[in-house]
Structures are given as C-alpha cells and as structure tokens.
Write a structure and sequence with these properties.
By secondary structure, this protein is of the alpha/beta class. Helix content is 44%, strand content 16%. The protein has helices spanning 13-25, 65-75, 89-94, 96-118, 156-175, 197-206, 226-239, 256-271, 300-306, 314-327, 329-337, 340-350; strands at residues 4-8, 30-35, 55-59, 79-82, 126-132, 179-184, 186-188, 211-214, 220-225, 245-248, 253-255, 282-285. Strands 3-2-1-4-5-6-10 form a 7-stranded parallel sheet, with helices on both faces. It has a 3-stranded mixed sheet with strand order 7-9-11. It binds nicotinamide-adenine-dinucleotide and 2'deoxy-thymidine-5'-diphospho-alpha-D-glucose.
Length: 351
C-alpha cells in the first residue's frame, strides 16, 4: 500500500486527471503534485480538488537536482507517477534541446533521487513512468504496436521519451529500482491545451477560424479518452508487475481528416449551425516535418493481465469533450489570453 505519492506534471492535461482520480479515490494517500508550471501547466485544471486535505502542490523543476533530493527527504515518497514532460511534437521540432533537458535529464534526475532515497529498502516502492506510443515509430497500413515492438523514435519528442524509457529500464536492471512503464496512444478530453489537434480545432471552429490540417489529413492516430488513460494508470500502479511495460490504447484509429469532419458535424449540432458550416473552415496546410503516418496500439496485455478496458466509444467521448469546451469558456479564454499563468500567484497569495 503506497501512502505518499509524488505525481509530476500534475498541472498538465493528463496529469490533472490522474491527480484528481487519486486524490478523490484514495483519501488515505498523500498526493504531492510537483509541476514547474511551464506554458502547459495550469492550476485551474485542479480548482475542484485544491483544498482537499490529502493534496499538496509543489512548484519546481524536475531537472533541479538539489530541489528534487530535498523533496524526497521532505515527503519520504513511496511511489512516483512521472508525467512531467515537454509533450508537443511541433515544439520539439522547433526547440529539441528543451525536450532533452526535461524529458531525459528530468527523468534521470528523478530516477536518481528515487534510487538514492530508496536504496536501503526498495520493498513496496514504485517508480511509474508514463510514456507514449510514439517511441515505437511509425506504422504502415497494417499491424499494431505491442510491448515487443522495437523502439524507433523519429521526432525529437519521441526520441527524448524513448531515451527516458531506456533510463527507467536501465535503473530497474542495474539498481533494481522497482519500475513500470506504460506507453499510451493519443489522449483527448477536457483540459487539453489548445495547441494539440482536437482542442485547437474546437477553439478555431467556435471562433470561425481556419482549422489547419497537416498535409492531406491522411495520418492516423489511435485516440483514447483521457479519463480512461487515468484509470489505466491507476490499475497499472496498483496491480502492474514491476519491470514490465504496458501498452494503453482504445483500438480506435482515425484518419485526421475523418476525425475533423466528425468534429465539424458535432460542432454544427452543438452550435446550432447549418450542417456543413464548420467543415468549410478546414484548411490543408504544410505537413509536419517527419510526420509519422500511423500509430495503433495493441492493448491486449493490459486487458488480459489487469482487466482494463476503455469505458467510452469515441463518438460519445468526442461529444462530451466538445460539451466541456463549450461550457467552460472561461478556461479556454484564460488559456488563450495567458491569464491562467497568474492563477498560481493569485491563489497562493490568498493563503
Ligand atoms: P502537458 O504538456 O499537458 O503537461 C505537462 C506538464 O508537465 C505541465 O503541467 C508542465 O508544466 C509540466 N512540466 C513540464 N516541464 C517540467 C519540468 N521541467 N519540471 C516540472 N514540470 C514540468 O502533457 P500531457 O499531454 O498531459 O502529457 C503528460 C505525459 O503523458 C507526458 O509524459 C507525455 O509524454 C505522456 N503522454 C501524453 C499523451 C497525450 O496524448 N497527450 C499520450 C501518451 C503519453
Ligand atoms: O501518440 C501519443 C502522442 O500524442 C503523445 O505522446 C503526445 O504528447 C501528444 O501531443 C500526441 O502527439 P501527436 O503529434 O499525435 O498529437 P497532435 O495533437 O499534435 O497531432 C495529432 C495529429 O494531427 C497529428 O497527425 C498531426 C495532426 N495535426 C496536428 C495539429 C496540431 C494537424 O493536422 N493539425 C494541427 O494543427
């Protein structure tokens, strides 16, 4: 039973869902959310749980070794769920070094702190590293990524995540650090930063702005509702086997252009627009450099070993996501205006 858990990147998209799930499901756990509050970190994502007695926020950088060591001393963590990362492929093409710093050095810094802090008693400890299906590279028209697929990262983002995965397994084999990795497909849902395809398209359609589709829109992604990813992380954290990796995905492949067309239909319906109105905003733009063609996860191991299955069909999840964005205009306004970055200082000055 883990009592004090460090969750990194808890102010981000997936991290905030994981923090909320753990804080609400396990009132007897102490959850410490460590986040540097980069452009992607937003404490408004956690407004509903910020005053819970089993929740603590710590602002800090995972690459800051003295700070991380002090944090381990202070809280005596017995579990780590590591999500903090630079996460956007397009940004990694513009600024690869930022990705190497946070994703590689930051992960190694956390691993090293855990190794030092746990070295005399590894029993009951767990370092859970949250990773991506992008480490496996790009698929052709057939086949799936399994846990046995060789790593073949092709973007600076995926190379940095692949490297961090290798360090996790190196620490497991070399120092017997109890570690687990999961590799998940594309997430969607509430609180998703509007630089990524689905929230960007929702935002642009709502504001009658062009919806940029890279290349011909023929790239394929395998989409999973973010709450289902958080549930999978909960399952793996509590029931997964140390030293293993688990693939997480929804068997839900969509060509980008088909996904955007479906989203346009939902948006027309929700906004009371005539059918076909939103689709007129679709604009084909220059392709992403090195754009991976297709991702598709085989999540059989997670299903067979640990009994996890996704809870939502994509059409239902996408509709719920659109509804969330349309009824949380303030969240989106704060993100697009930059006001969300003042939330932290406002909140903490009040205390
Ligand atoms: P995100 O960009 O929304 O959030 C990342 C969070 O990490 C932010 O709150 C940010 O402030 C924080 N952070 C960044 N650098 C930091 C640093 N140096 N120190 C401390 N905190 C820092 O990302 P996300 O989409 O929620 O992804 C979370 C994790 O899940 C990442 O590791 C990502 O690789 C992985 N993942 C994401 C997806 C997806 O579809 N979004 C799919 C599979 C795996
Ligand atoms: O597969 C998991 C990965 O999914 C995660 O590891 C990453 O952190 C996450 O960002 C996501 O990566 P993608 O590159 O697949 O997501 P993104 O939303 O940026 O793009 C989805 C697809 O849509 C991709 O084929 C590129 C395309 N695209 C994206 C944007 C932002 C467009 O056509 N237009 C756009 O404006």
């Amino acid at each position: 039973m883990h009592h004090t858990i460090l969750i990194t990147g808890g102010a981000g998209f997936i991290g905030s869902h994981v923090v909320r799930l753990f804080v609400n499901t396990y009132p007897h756990y102490q959850i410490v959310n460590l986040d540097a509050l980069t452009y992607a970190g937003n404490l408004e994502n956690l407004e509903d749980i910020q005053d819970k007695p089993n929740y603590i926020f710590e602002k800090g950088d995972i690459t800051d070794e003295p700070f991380i060591n002090k944090l381990f001393e202070k809280y005596k963590f017995d579990g780590v769920i590591h999500l903090a990362a630079e996460s956007h492929v397009d940004r990694s093409i513009m600024d690869p070094l930022a990705f190497i710093k946070t994703n590689v050095m930051g992960t190694a810094t956390l691993l090293n702190a855990a190794r030092q802090y746990w070295k005399d008693d590894m029993k009951g400890k767990l370092f859970y590293h949250v990773s991506t299906d992008e480490v496996y590279g790009s698929l052709g028209e057939e086949g799936f990524f399994t846990e046995e697929t060789c790593y073949d990262p092709r973007s600076p983002y995926s190379a940095s995540k692949a490297s961090s995965d290798h360090f996790v397994m190196a620490y497991y084999h070399t120092y017997h650090l109890p570690a687990i990795i999961s590799n998940c497909s594309n997430n969607y849902g509430s609180h998703h930063f509007p630089e990524k395809l689905i929230p960007l398209a929702i935002h642009n359609i709502k504001n009658n702005k062009p919806v940029p589709v890279y290349g011909k829109g023929e790239n394929i992604r395998d989409w999973l509702y973010v709450n289902d990813h958080a549930r999978a992380i909960d399952t793996i954290f509590h029931k997964g086997r140390v030293g293993e990796t688990y693939n997480i995905g929804g068997f839900n492949e969509w060509k980008n252009i088909d996904l955007i067309n479906l989203l346009c239909i939902i948006m027309d319906k929700k906004l009371g627009r005539a059918p076909g109105t939103s689709a007129q905003l679709i604009t084909f733009v220059k392709d992403r450099a090195g754009h991976d063609l297709r991702y598709a996860i085989d999540a059989t191991k997670l299903n067979k070993e640990l009994g996890w299955t996704p809870s939502l069909q994509f059409e239902e999840g996408l509709e719920k996501t659109v509804e969330w964005y349309l009824s949380n205009e303030q969240w989106l306004d704060h993100v697009t205006s930059g006001a969300y970055q003042e939330y932290y200082s406002d909140q903490y000055q009040k205390r």
